[in-house]
Fold these 4 entries.
Entry 1:
Amino acid sequence: MKKIILTTALLAASSAYAEDRVLNTRDIYTYQIIENPVTRRHCQTVDVPMYETHERKGSASEAITGGVIGGAIGNQFGGGTGNAVMTLLGVIIGANAVDKEERYISGYRQETTCSYDKEIDRKRVKVYSHTLVEIQREDGSRYIAEYIK
């Protein structure tokens, strides 16, 4: 349809100037950057630690040392029988404080974690801009006409 209109226009123009000649026609193109937003999924495998808990009993020397330190601290509080009670309480707490619950890494398991990132895809596209027509007149002069199809 566009070619018919163009041909008709050129014929009408050439009939008005019977001696004018079309020397050249050329389509002109430009380049545009087309941006397209996309969401991409990125996944990776990671090592996740597995923990175990182990109850560790303190050794006899650790219990004795804890009891002595606890008794010394407890002895600082109270007076009379209260002082003796606090000292005894310090010995008991100090001796039991050496028993510990330890948490340690017993191994690793692999897990896949994914994230979704928004990105822009850019594409260079050739796009029609306009057409140039070079015309020579009867007197030999030339001119260029521009039009859009």
Entry 2:
Amino acid sequence: MPTWRPHPPTRAATVYTVHNLAYQGLFPHADFRLLDLPARFMSHTGLEFHGQLSFMKAGLKYAKRVTTVSPTYAREIATHEFGVGLDGVIRGRGNEVSGVLNGVDGQVWNPADDNALSSHYSAAQMAGKAQCKQALQRELGLAEKTRSAGVRRGQPVDVTEGPGPRARRAAGHRAARRAQLALQGSGEPGLEAAFREAAKAQPQQVGVRIGYDEAFAHRLIAGSDAILVPSRFEPCGLTQMYGLRYGTLPIVRRVGGLSDTVVDANADNLRADRATGFVFDAASVPALDGALQRAGEVFHERPRHVGEAAAPRHGAGFLVARRGKSVSRAVPEHRGQLSISAPRWRPTATA
């Protein structure tokens, strides 16, 4: 085994990027010897973390700069609530920690030429979205109603990120009262069973697919009116960006990158013509239910015409999330039942 030697002086700098602070790269204390580093590094001021070896802490401590995937998450991980035991290390780095917002690939996620869709559309020509919705209802065996809003459950679901199981089950049942709910994914068995139960009880209102299929995820987003991302924490989130790209309004909790990418449709933002979705604060059933109700109200009261496309935001050319285009102007023209959907449901994992 080679003997450790310090690096010679160099002008090269290191940047350590954190996607999700909860996944920390923890190893047994005894594994430190495999690194052949001086013993002083395995201390509470170094790589030691509650009696274990932490690669995450190593990056946070010794990189020249630390970045993460959204500005809000960069601030959140310096707090006890989101710091997963490393908030003190983050605070110690001060302004050397920053967030760079994620983006989506506009060529892969483009409703104007997406091969997974039965019909194509753009911000200027939205008729194809109504056809995508009808196709999705047919594919999932949902009622092809003209007065039903479609809501897609869009965030990877696990117990570490989403609202509690009661909130999610309630969301499914409540959304289906005035809307249709579509979900795809796999995860905690109890939640899978609850969603299957909801689909069995209301087969024309709730559609559930256990597993994940990328092409179906594209159809799910395109065929829905709103996309539900009720995360407990969210470093950035791409799901809401896919929704914005496809003219599917996000319903999100004000956390992490969701805060940085969705502008709430409150009275002030609507007056200023800058709202792009619906944001709620508490990780609770009433808060989520309130956001769903607001989305339903906008759906049923929206004007007839869609605003023209504005300049792309975050380099992706979003149909909805753009400065100067409000929710009230961006909701698709087609009439129908609100559809809420969810294409990605990640298996439960803990750090």
Entry 3:
Amino acid sequence: MTEATSPASPDATGGPASTTAVIAWAKLEAGGALAGGRRQALDLVVAAVNALVLDRWRLDATKPNVQLGAVMLAARWFARGDTPAGVLMGNGDGSPTYVRTTDPDVAELLGIGARAKPALA
């Protein structure tokens, strides 16, 4: 990845993920997964992930693990838009492929869910 598309390049709003970084990470093609208005959907997913990371979870967007975790989370949420009920049909042999609804690796990077540090509310 180049400097402009690396997870270490936060978006213009200061969020840890950018649409460009998600496109590079997920290897999305302009004529494929981003056709027919899907680019706007990806922009919304990236904005939602950045809002969660910054506003709800209050994570430091300058940390590389947070940047990578946010990019991975946005890419996976975008991909799940094409997988109703967590099942992706058509993996080549006709059998369904399960898509996880939780991401332990992303939780580890972001320190959320089961990987969150104990804290008082």
Entry 4:
Amino acid sequence: MRLSLAVLGVVGGLVLVGGAAADSGPLPAPLVTDSYYTWPGAQLLQVSPVPWGGGYVRSASPYYVDCPLACIRPFSAGATVTLTAVPSTGYTFVGWQVADHGQAPVSGACPGTGPCTVTISAAKDVVALFDGPPPQPVGEPDRNGSTASKAKTDCQKFGGTFVKLMPPILWGCNDWINTGSADFTAKSQTLSDDCFADGGDGYGASAFVPGTGNSNCFKL
């Protein structure tokens, strides 16, 4: 199993955790790092669509869980979370697997293809299983003849870590460096231009702590 996280700051008793990579146990783990606020006694819910790109998993409003964008989230012990699976185009949702974190899935938990309600009695892993064609590899020439190579070059030039993923997230650039709001805006614009040149349909950037940025390129 693997776990990689960094505590970025404490605000009003909440601890901001950034760059958290999921554990890989009997159930497949999310393929992206995550950032979230947590607190003493909170239990983590880790959600993953399988195959990656086969669909979304969301919790009832408000969307504390919105995977593959937000896949690792803390909840108070005893809370109940209702998850809904939404298949991507060409895929069909076929069922759930639920387990205590790092353990084998529990037989009979969340049968069928309806919403899955999980009681957070301890840290939990949930997998949504989808059936359909395999996602296309990232980095193939898009309609403009571009590839993700320029995005990777720019990401690394900005001090970030470039990660190729499967649709709906084409690629990510994690923890790139900026020196202030103007620099953040300029570098984010460069990465946004790279995203749309790669055939992306959407781009998002955020700064979890001053001096760093995280970007994702989406193919919807």
